[in-house]
Amino acid sequence: MYRFLLSRQWLILTLVALLLIPTMIRLGFWQMDRYYERDARNQLVAKALKAEPVPVQRLTSPGGKITTGLRYRTVTAVGEFDTDRQVVVRRRVNASEEVGFHVLTPLVLTDGKVLLVNRGWIPADGPTQASFPTVPAPPSGRVTVTGRLMPDETTEASGIKNLKGLPDRQIMLIDSKRESRRLGAPVLGGYVAQTAPEPRGDSPQQIGSPGEENAPLNYAYALQWWLLALGVPIGWVVLVRRELRDRAAAAATAAAAEEKAPAEPDPAAV
User: Fold this and answer.
1) Where is this region: Disordered (predicted)?
2) Which of 34, 65, 81, 127 could form a disulfide with 218 if both were Cys (CB 3.0 to 4.6 A apart)?
3) pLDDT tens for residues 52-107?
4) What is the distance between the alpha carbons of residues 265 and 205, in angstroms, rounded to a whole number?
């Protein structure tokens, strides 16, 4: 009755089903790992954004590294902007996906150290980004800056290549160690994405708050993979039962046809 399962077609179908089940289960667990990772990052970001502002010197120092737990922490700093030595960061987009620059201005603190402040996005003066753009001036004199603490940028984390031979006062990545060498001054590790004071005339456009990663989507994907894994053996059984019904129906039809066929004459009776 089940000998058809030994046919080449059914052996291949059964083998594929046996391979799909553990593969789909594994993909479900991979999506769950992604869910836990994203959920943990969301919690860290939410905790950092809700934390009370603290002076930046409490969380970083010259040559220091901004850890995952410190990222997005709100910090304050008091000093004066050094616009003569500010640079722009190439190939950055705003909320409308327009390509332009981020303005990186050194803030000379009251103790002589330097904090890199990303004041926000400005458009490029031309399509080639070959010249230094027109940069709106920050407040003059002593100012209190508030912003989100960010780690130094790397090619590995951002996917942005650190190109050489760029136009004057343009950079690809924000790196406090490299900026320390350029400025010849002790620069605090990481940088700050400025949130206050707000720029005059909405320019530069300040960088928006980090969005929440869609962790529940990975959870839903995991359930889908596991339901598909459950559906494979169910589907295999359904196909087997359908094959049995088809074979039984074909056998019944053949038997009925044989009964209705006229009897052949007996040669001995002629």
Assistant:
1) 192-211, 251-270
2) 34
3) 999 999 999 999 999 988 999 999 999 999 999 999 999 899 988 899 999 999 99
4) 101
